[in-house]
Design goal:
The protein contains 14 helices and twelve strands. By secondary structure, the chain is α/β, with parallel strands linked by helices. The chain folds into two domains: 229 residues, Type I PLP-dependent aspartate aminotransferase-like (Major domain) (Aspartate Aminotransferase, domain 2, 3-Layer(aba) Sandwich), CATH 3.40.640.10; 117 residues, Aspartate Aminotransferase, domain 1. It is globular, with a radius of gyration of 22 Å. The protein starts with a helix and ends in a 5-residue tail after the last helix.
Length: 406
C-alpha cells in the first residue's frame, strides 16, 4: 500500500512540475537562457526517486546505498558522454564556481605561491577573475590577457605570456555575455608544447555547441548544471587522467578522493539526465536556436538604425545576441518591456548600473555599452515569440528615441 501511495505521489509531483513550466512560459517571453534555464522534465523525473524511497548513502554497502551509488555512476556516465571523456575523469561539484575555484587553487602550492604563474583573460566570468585576484594577493603571478574588439584572445599573446613557471592557462570556451567562442584548440596546442595544463570554463558552451575534451585538448573543463537545463547547485569538473589537483575540501574519499562529502545523488541525477537529453537533441537544438537568434537579429537591425553588435558576428554561441542601442540604457529599455525576460549583461552582476567588464575589455565606448541588451534564446522559444519580442523591443526603442517614457 505504501509503495502504491508513493507511486501516486510521484505522478502528482511530475504533473505539477510540468504544469508549472507550461504556466510560466505562457505569461512571458524568456530570452535569458545564458543566465539560467528551466529544468528539463526528464531531469526532474530522474531526481524524484532520490527525494523519496531511494534515500541511501552512496557510500553504504547495503542495498539502498548500492542503488544510490549506481545512480551516481549512471549520472557520471551521462555527463561524461556529452564531453567525450572517460567516466573516471569526471567529478561532481556544487556548480561552475566551485569547479573553477578547484582548478585555480588546486594547482597552486600555497606554501610558496610566489613560485607560480597563471594566464587568463579579461573577459572571463567572475568565477575565474575573482579567484585569480585572490591568488594575486597571495603572491601568485597572474597575467590577464587583453581581447580584441570581438572579445577574442589572440593565441600569439598566450604564447608570449608563457613563463618558465607557468602552472596553468585558463581561458573560457564561450563568453556568457557576447557568446564569443575562444580558440581553445589553438591555445591548447601552444600549451602542450610547453607542458602547461589548460582549463576552460565551458559553463555556457555545454549543450549549446559540441564540446569534446579530446578535440579541444584541454586538461580541465567546467560544467554548470543550470546552464544545460539541469538543476541549480550542481556542476561537474573534467580532470584529465594523469593531472592532479589539491582538493578544496578535505574529508572522506568520495569522488575518487578529489571532493570530500556525501555525493548529492539528487542533483547529480538531474544533471546527468539533462546532459543526456542535451546530447541526444544537440544538432536539432543548435539549428533551431541559430534560426531563432538570426531572425531576432534580422528584425532588430532591419528596423532600428545605429544598432551595434557586441561580440564576434560568426564565432559565437548559436543562441546569443548581444546588441547595443547607442544613447539609451539597456536597463531602461527592459523596464518598459515587462513581458520580456532578458538581461543587460551577466546576471550575477547585473544590478550595478555600470559598463560590463566584458564590453569594457572589448573597448566598447560607454555610450554604446550602456545600451547593451543580452538576448539569449532556448529550446522553448518559438518563432512567434521571437517576432513578438522583436516588435516590442523595436517599439520601445522608438518611443524612447522620441522622448517618450511609456
Amino acid at each position: 500500500m505504501r509503495h502504491r501511495l508513493a507511486f501516486y505521489e510521484t505522478i502528482k509531483i511530475e504533473r505539477l512540475v510540468i504544469l508549472m513550466i507550461g504556466y510560466n512560459y505562457g505569461k512571458f517571453i524568456y530570452l535569458d537562457h545564458n543566465a539560467t534555464t528551466p529544468v528539463e522534465p526528464e531531469a526532474v523525473k530522474a531526481m524524484l526517486p532520490y527525494l523519496q524511497e531511494e534515500f541511501g548513502n552512496p557510500s553504504s554497502g547495503y542495498t539502498l546505498g548500492i542503488k544510490a551509488k549506481e545512480g551516481v555512476e549512471r549520472a557520471r556516465k551521462e555527463v561524461a558522454s556529452i564531453l567525450g571523456c572517460k567516466n573516471n575523469e569526471l567529478i561532481f561539484t556544487s556548480g561552475g564556481t566551485e569547479s573553477n575555484n578547484m582548478v585555480l587553487k588546486g594547482l597552486i602550492d600555497f606554501k610558496n605561491p610566489e613560485k607560480f604563474h597563471m594566464i587568463t583573460c579579461a573577459v572571463e566570468h567572475p568565477a575565474i577573475l575573482n579567484p585569480a585576484v585572490y591568488l594575486m594577493e597571495l603572491g601568485v603571478n597572474v597575467t590577464i590577457l587583453p581581447v580584441d574588439r570581438f572579445g577574442l584572445v589572440d593565441p600569439d599573446s598566450v604564447q608570449k605570456a608563457i613563463l618558465p613557471n607557468t602552472a596553468l592557462i585558463t581561458i573560457m570556451l564561450a563568453n556568457n555575455e557576447t557568446g564569443t567562442l575562444q580558440p581553445i584548440k589553438e591555445i591548447s596546442n601552444i600549451a602542450r608544447e610547453h607542458g602547461i595544463p589548460v582549463h576552460t570554463d565551458a559553463a555556457q558552451a555545454v549543450g549549446k555547441i559540441e564540446v569534446d575534451v579530446s578535440e579541444l585538448g584541454v586538461d580541465f573543463l567546467t560544467v554548470a548544471g543550470h546552464k544545460v537545463y539541469g538543476p541549480k547547485g550542481v556542476g561537474a569538473l573534467f580532470i584529465r587522467n594523469g593531472r592532479k589537483l589539491t582538493p578544496l575540501m578535505h574529508g572522506a574519499s568520495q569522488e575518487a578522493g578529489k571532493r570530500a562529502g556525501t555525493e548529492n545523488i539528487i542533483l547529480a541525477s538531474g544533471l546527468g539526465a539533462a546532459c543526456r537529453i542535451a546530447e541526444e537533441r544537440l544538432k536539432n537544438n543548435i539549428e533551431n536556436m541559430k534560426k531563432l537568434r538570426d531572425r531576432l537579429q534580422e528584425l532588430l537591425f532591419g528596423e532600428l538604425d545605429g544598432l551595434v553588435l557586441n561580440g564576434h558576428p560568426h564565432e559565437r554561441l548559436p543562441n546569443t545576441l548581444n546588441v547595443s542601442v547607442p544613447g539609451l540604457e539597456g536597463g531602461k529599455i527592459l523596464e518598459g518591456l515587462p513581458t520580456i525576460m532578458a538581461s543587460t549583461g551577466a546576471a550575477c552582476h547585473d544590478r550595478a548600473v555600470r559598463l560590463s567588464h566584458v564590453l569594457s575589455a572589448m573597448a566598447v565606448p560607454p555610450e554604446i555599452g550602456m545600451g547593451a541588451l543580452r538576448l539569449t534564446v532556448g529550446r522553448s522559444n518559438t518563432m512567434d515569440q521571437i517576432e513578438e519580442a522583436a516588435e516590442l523591443i523595436i517599439n520601445q526603442v522608438k518611443r524612447m528615441r522620441d522622448g517618450k517614457t511609456n
